Hints:
Layout: H1 5-16, H2 22-29, H3 33-45, E1 64-72, H4 77-85, E2 90-95, E3 102-108, H5 111-123, E4 127-134
Antiparallel strand pairs: 1-3, 1-4, 2-3
Helix pairs in contact: 2-3
Amino acid sequence: MQIDETDRSLITLLQENARMPVTKLAKRLNLARTTVQARLDRLEHSKVIQGYAVRLNENMRAPIRATVLLAIEPRSAPTVLARLETHLNVMAVYTTSGRFDMIVELEAQSTEELDTTLDQIGEAKGVKSSESLIHLSTRINRRR
């Protein structure tokens, strides 16, 4: 599907506020309301826009966040992923190239909860080694 500059502008506005009314989007884009609605329908139907989400205030998130770098045994990714999927503290997992094979993002309510989760991940079958990085503060956050 082709995305033009108007689509990009529409998406940017929605990233700022996904609840912005179509009439306000149309006014900001200097387009007819029906044109904006048609573009939204097209972007949703083609899965460019896959949904709308609630962004929580930082105070609503778990107070402790960490990134774990995992080195895993060859061909053990499915086993390790299945194990990671069972942990509610695991928020995201990315595969990588380089010295580590996976990046795991964690959230926990306490250092004890984080410690337990890290131990369980480190003991998982297929995990060769791990390195944990506890997030201290957020300086830039462009995720929307």
